[in-house]
Sequence to fold (500 residues):
Amino acid sequence: MELPEREIAYRALQSRDFRFDGLLFVGVTSTGIYCRPVCPARTPKFEHCRFFGLAAAAQEAGFRPCLRCRPETAPDLASWRGTSSTVSRALALINEGALDGDSASVEALADRLGIGGRHLRRLFAQHLGASPIAVAQTRRVLFAKQLIHETRMSMTGVALAAGFGSLRRFNEVFQELFHRPPRALRRKTSSSRTSLDTGVTIRLRYRPPYDWDSMLDYLRARAIAGVEVVENGHYLRSVKIDGATGSVDVSHLPQLQSLSVTIRFPQVQALPAIVTRVRRLFDLGADIETIDTHLSRDPLLAPLVAQRPGLRAPGGWDGFELAMRAILGQQVSVAAGRRLAEQLVANYGEPVSKEYASHPKLTHAFPTVERLASIESIAVGMPRARQLSLEALAKAAVEDPNLFRPFGTIEETVARLRKLRGVGEWTAQYIALRAFREPDAFPAADIGLLRGAAIIDGKQATSTTLLTRAESWRPWRAYAAQHLWAADATARSALRSAHA
Ligand SMILES: [Zn+2]
Fold:
């Protein structure tokens, strides 16, 4: 992994440069503590500093997290490190808890990625400077620390939510790291205890800038009634994980460069998986400055980037849901695709209990794979051929639980998806972009993209010319696509109002 020169890293530390937040951590050998570059504490001596690109690397080297600058609140850019998509995928799985619990192992994780355990460890050492186990342990400690600081959850709740097998193990780890029990880290406040049942709120930091308005516009245009609500600057949706249902409520805190996320859910162990989904949907891990800079090198794309700095590529909440939505959206407008999804939810969605719904309009969870696979003939108002695609997709997803899990390269992923009935190149690339968060996925045949390309180039584009054109946007073609879609949407709404 590329770290800045020691002198540059030290200057970033001296000036408390927030642009290095999440990209750089400093371990101080005289205190044994590691910090964010923005730490308000006195700057340590140059010779006492060791620099790391990842909190887990600092922690594996024996440093413990600072209680003042709180490394757990740095933007989590880890999945962007290095050039290895295998590492990114492994990190996503670890964030969901793949290395938590007694039966979890690096071998099993590597197996899910289609490689051997030794290879995975080597990739982690090379790209992250930390082992998979250290990454998982650090994640548990930092997530627990965040829950202790930001919520009023019970210590048992925190231990379970962060993926510790037991309260005893949780206490041991904290005692060893901080020389005090976990509850000693909580600041005393008068507010009463909270739990995931009644709702816990945490903050998720991003690397600025963040184009929140464009993100909300995107989500609003596609919001499925019953499952999603976009209102007063908030995005709310129902959540279903492992048979339980609940909800999330997400809003923007621009001054804190964070999103505020309130989660209500009956099972506390699901918290990391829910937070991971929020990060994915809102694309919080993007090193957006690097991406915007790269795309701005194209003189015709540069004005679009300048117009919407920090534009993100929204992820899919769930792979299966996203794939179903992609098929429902084939050959129809965004609004028509949304109405079809609403029919699907009305017919087959699962009711969400009022207790866990953060908005009265959140009435249903998106239909499950199992439910849809069990239906003889899925009733939605679209041609039979596309209904058959929906049915085939549901059956394939039941047969292969890893169908929408990251596995192999982008080319392998697209090839695997294309074997499904009704999934062509466009749909496969679209699923890769949204569901697998492939930053280089690019559905070149998309009509909106072709129109967007015509706007910047001033001439008609075909999928072939656009693919050639897009070579220089790699490895971030997904973000270029987002800019082209946004430009197209703006041009079309201007056209509509001109005719109105
Ligand atoms: Zn600090």
